[in-house]
From TrEMBL:
InterPro entries (alphabetical): Bact_HTH_transcr_reg (IPR050679), Chorismate_lyase_/UTRA_dom_sf (IPR028978), Tscrpt_reg_HTH_GntR (IPR000524), UTRA (IPR011663), WH-like_DNA-bd_sf (IPR036388), WH_DNA-bd_sf (IPR036390)
A UniProt-annotated Pfam family: GntR
HTH gntR-type domain span: 11-78
Annotated protein name in UniProt: GntR family transcriptional regulator
Keyword Transcription: yes
Domain of life per record: Bacteria
Length: 251
């Protein structure tokens, strides 16, 4: 193919180049294939390497490319379909049968101010359950489930004379939560940036784009729990239906 010149394009060069590169990814490259180096790509499209880097960074943020140390820049696989809607009924508690999340840890802590307002706990400590989700062995989401202490009794600090692990205490909290009738739930989705801890768990850099899903679980007397779930925005496509999510090509 010939060199593509961009000098007369009115929009930012890197943005137009991103579109041109995206078309090339669809027509010329296979998933996992390594792209030519920056010098070759810059020469082909007639742009400065700084412009090329901006376009490549944008495509990486959109999940079209992956940069791997010691390998180079490769074409990313299709986005993973991740079902967010309830399974097994219109409303289900976290940790119910069919739940795709893995419960990892428990602590008692004061929740972030937005969560405290939803739970109406003021400055009181709550149960905070750390959970994670993987697809094909890769981390795709991390979650903290906040439950007020007055909603469920604290799990025993010891079981059979031995200290309970964080995961065991978390499961005990969930068992107590499941005893309550769930009246409903609602969700909101926002685009956010990965905090340091979430980035570490998701194998991303701090500040990477993420999708933050906040779920409020309701009982007759009000909000009983709030889950803040952080999904990788570069590899996930969220589905809120009851059916399985279908894969979608990134971009």
């Amino acid at each position: 193919m010939g060199t593509t010149r961009l000098e007369t394009v009115p929009e930012p060069k890197y943005w137009h180049l991103k579109t041109v590169l995206s078309d090339a990814l669809d027509s010329e490259f296979a998933v996992g294939e390594i792209l030519p180096n920056e010098r070759e790509l810059a020469a082909r499209f007639g742009v400065a390497r700084a412009t090329l880097r901006q376009a490549l960074e944008q495509l990486e943020l959109e999940g079209r490319l992956q940069r791997r140390r010691g390998v180079g820049t490769t074409v990313a696989p299709p986005r993973v379909g991740v079902g967010v809607g309830p399974e097994g009924g219109p409303y289900v508690w976290p940790g119910a049968p069919g739940d795709a999340w893995h419960t990892e840890d428990h602590e008692e802590t004061v929740p972030p101010a937005p969560v405290a307002r939803l739970l109406d706990t003021g400055g009181d400590a709550v149960h905070a359950l750390r959970r994670s989700r993987t697809t094909s062995g890769q981390p795709v989401a991390t979650e903290v489930l906040y439950i007020p202490a007055h909603v469920v009794c604290p799990p025993p600090a010891e079981q059979d004379g031995h200290s309970a692990t964080g995961a065991a205490r978390a499961r005990a909290v969930l068992r107590e939560l499941h005893r309550m009738p769930l009246a409903g739930q609602d969700r909101t989705v926002e685009l956010g940036s990965a905090r340091a801890e979430d980035a570490r768990r998701l194998d991303r850099l701090p500040g990477a784009p993420v999708l933050v899903v906040t779920t409020r679980y309701l009982i007759d007397s009000g909000t009983s729990a709030v889950a803040v779930s952080t999904f990788r925005a570069d590899t996930c496509r969220l589905s809120f239906s009851d059916s399985d999510a279908a894969p979608l090509l990134a971009g």
